[in-house]
Amino acid sequence: MLTIGQLAAYAGVTVRAVRHDHKIGLLPEPERDRSGYRVYDTAAIVRLIRIHTLADAGVPLARVQDLLDAEPREFAVAIHEIDETLRTEIRRLRDTRRRLACLAAGDHLALPRSVVAYLDRLRGLGVQEPYIERERDAWIMVAAQVPHLIEAVIAEKHRQLDDPDMVKLYGFLRGALDWPADDPRIVEIADILERLRIRAVRAGAVDGDGFDDGLVNLLDSVVLESSPGVERVIAILEERGWRGWTRIERVPVDRLEPGAG
Predict the structure, then answer these.
(1) 96-107 average pLDDT score
(2) b or e along 215-232 (b: 16 or more beta carbons within 10 Å of the residue's beta carbon)?
(3) Best label site of 127, 237, 246, 256, fewest CB within 10 Å?
(4) Any idea where the domains of the chain sit in the sequence?
(5) Contact yes or no for 159/153 (Cβ under 8 A)
(6) What CATH number labels 4-102?
(7) Rounded to whole angstroms, how far apart are CA atoms 205 and 183?
(8) pLDDT (tens digit, 9 = 90+) per residue, 226-250?
(9) How many CB atoms lie within 10 A of CB 67?
(10) pTM for this structure?
């Protein structure tokens, strides 16, 4: 016969743990000796070891009692179910760890690798981080709302960067973005954008195709917030018959298209 201290030692737990198992009903109360002390047999050691093996394996205490008294087949089924639950939790925790690791990676958070590569290409053109950050935020929204379109859109953006006019446009973004609306570069930017839009329409490649109105408005607001001069660029383009920014629409006007030849 064993004392509570001996039982705890044989099972590899503390006396406090044994008393807790008594309290919650996992370990039945044993007989007591004449002095009122608990006395245990070897069966109590086996049960206590099983209790803490299950608990240490992640089995909820609410299920430990059922498993202790289950038939072998029932026990095996229950263990399989618990194992599947643990596997799911492990996958969730691994995914959480990957996302936490991405926090230190900047652009990689919530962005596909293709978008990160595109942003790196902009950096290679000398585009400054204030603009990169705004463009990154816009891509995060696109990737979240229309993930099925992201690769095609990025491929088109890379194709556009092969155009000297597009490279020239991004050249304006190497400095600050706080240009006033009367900055002479505003008109030059509008000229470049108009030439790009004319070629895009002729090629049948119109930005914003497949985006719903809500996403278009959201992306347009990101552009408008980027610089005081952007609103002036949009106004000039509207005067020339171009409406919108993310989704471009041609509006008939009585004028010749500059650069159309």
Answers:
(1) 63
(2) bbebbbeebeebbbbbeb
(3) 256
(4) 4-102, 107-250
(5) no
(6) 1.10.1660.10
(7) 30
(8) 666 778 888 898 899 888 777 777 7
(9) 16
(10) 0.51
The confidence band for 170, taking pLDDT boundaries of 50, 70 and 90, is confident
Place of tokens 């290679």: 124
Mean pLDDT across the chain: 81
R_g of the chain computed on alpha carbons: 34
pLDDT above 90 (res 9): yes
Provide the pLDDT for residue 259. 47
